[in-house]
Amino acid sequence: MSFSRFALIPEVLRAVRERGYDEATPVQADSIPEIIAGRDLMATAQTGSGKTAAFVLPIIDRLHRQRANRLSAIILAPTRELAAQIGREFELLARHTLLSAAVVIGGESMERQLHKLRKGAQVLIGCPGRLIDHIERGTVRLDQIQIAVIDEADRLLDMGFLPQLRVIMQKLPHRRQTLMFSATMASAVQRIAREFLTDPARVEGSVEEISAPPDTIRQVVCPVTTENKGRMLRQILLRPEVTSAIVFTRTRVRADRVGKLLTQGGVKAIVIHGERTQGQRNAALAGFRAGKFRVLVATDVAARGLDIPDVSHVINYDLPDAAENYVHRIGRTARMGKSGQALSLATPEERALLGQIERALKIRLEQESVEGFEPLAIVPPKPVKLFSSARMRARPSRMRSHAY
Ligand code: AMP
Q1: Ligand 1 atom 16 nearest Cα
Q2: What pLDDT sits at residue 327?
Q3: Per-residue pLDDT reduced to its tens digit, 168-193
Q4: Is 380 or 293 the better-scoring residue by pLDDT?
Q5: Which residues form ligand 1's pocket by a CB distance below 6 Å?
Q6: What is the distance between the alpha carbons of residues 259 and 111, in angstroms, rounded to a whole number?
Q7: Fewer Cβ within 10 Å of end Cβ, the chain: N or C?
Q8: Quick one: pLDDT band at residue 210, thresholds 50, 70, 90?
Q9: Which of 186, 209, 232 is the last residue of a domain?
Q10: Domain for residue 404, yes or no?
């Protein structure tokens, strides 16, 4: 569906065109009209579905029409990387308006963030922890918020942010529009949907049938704590059978960080991600193929569409957000009748993602401890019934799960 079908202001449509978006993705086609109509929304959408623009576009549209001059929308995200990514998308799509967003995340100077807030941002994007710091210091006022977005609600809950989320939601005006996005509909997500949303429209991505990976790939999950991930990766790469490996991370920042960590540890590694040009990516691949590098660190986006050679190991440094990405990733090994190994480093915070992959593939992945690390087990959440509440008005959905 073309974006011109939505009643969006020309400033927004122009930015969409310049961003290179020709057609709305299914989650955008289903969500944007509901958001414009002012309804609360509960959407199941994964990273890669275009969910960010699905909520950013109607927010820009509304605030520009209102000539909003104070903080009017808040977007909550579980990680700094995601908050920063939403901030970038907002900036690009709001470039023909006077609206601005303040991104409030830990690990960055509070002063800089305050400066942006004082300059009068209309949109606040952030992780619950740092936001609460600002609320407690009285540096943000939430009493004029009209729209609240809870992005990746399942991960926010997995990461234990529910208490902070409640504190923030209680500070918002009662009369507001609330939009919630989540990759899964775990029972905890349904509970907070009932707590925070009023008569939401529902947009549901139906999970595509995913073909199981070939059994020539040995798939193993290595449970690990977040702080031990880097050390565990290096330990695995010391194994003599790891002749060449692709290490997948969730974001560009993490890909760079892992690349640096490996290089500093004496591992010949090269990084590809979406901010590198096609030429740089191809050069990196040529080096990897020629054996100049033993390890290729990549994000899903960068790896898409590239002819990556056969490797002995695929290592998921972070679990992918979508089960189909898991299958794409691990399919880089065990090509042409050979066998290969896929190792997924998974933290307890990633248990929902692990559950999602296991459910989609209808398998239970074997968990194995790595030499030198305390054994740890990850118990994925049990499959749950989908919404049954009468308040959740289900609509027939055209949506399929899509990756862009
Ligand atoms: P998201 O699911 O929001 O993380 O978006 C995934 C990727 O899809 C991002 O790189 C977006 O820039 C891109 N994207 C979002 N909407 C569209 C669209 N309508 N057409 C093409 N790409 C899009």
Answers
A1: 50
A2: 84
A3: 999 999 999 999 999 877 788 999 99
A4: 293
A5: 21, 23-25, 28, 47-53, 404
A6: 30
A7: C
A8: low
A9: 209
A10: no
232 and 132 part of one domain:
no
Identify the CATH number of the domain in which residue 170 sits: 3.40.50.300
For 23, the 3-state DSSP assignment is strand
Ligand 1 test: best mutation among 4, 13, 25, most atoms within 8 Å of CB? Answer: 25
* Contact status, residue 342 vs residue 376, Cβ threshold 8 Å: no
- What are the tens digits of pLDDT across the range 138-163? 888 899 999 999 999 988 887 789 99
CA of 294 from ligand 1 middle (Å) equals 31
Domain boundary, last residue among 168, 193, 209 = 209
**202 and 224 together in one domain:** no
User: Which pLDDT score, from 0 to 100, does residue 392 have?
Assistant: 38
Domain shared by 120 and 254, yes or no: no
Average the pLDDT over 65-73 and give the result: 95
Sign of CA dihedral 351, 357, 359, 361: negative
- Are 294 and 157 contained in the same domain? no
Q: Are residues 137 and 272 in the same domain?
A: no
Distance (angstroms) between ligand 1 centre and the Cα of 19 equals 9
- Measured between alpha carbons, how far is 168 from 142 in angstroms, rounded to an integer? 9
On the 0-12 / 13-18 / 19+ scale of CB atoms within 10 A, 20 is exposed
- Give every strand in the sheet of 295-299, ordered side by side: 269-272, 295-299, 245-249, 313-316, 340-346, 217-223, 366-367
Number of domains in the chain: 2
Going from the C-alpha of 301 to that of each of 216, 272, 292, the distances in angstroms are 25, 10, 23
Closest ligand 1 atom number to CA of residue 45: 2
Q: How far apart are CA 126 and CA 50, in angstroms?
A: 19
Range of the domain at 233: 212-399
For residue 269, tell me if it sits in a domain: yes
Does one domain contain both 275 and 203?
A: no
- Is it the case that residue 324 has pLDDT exceeding 80? no
Q: Is the pLDDT of residue 396 over 60?
A: no
| Same domain for 168 and 217 | no
**Residue 384: predicted pLDDT:** 42
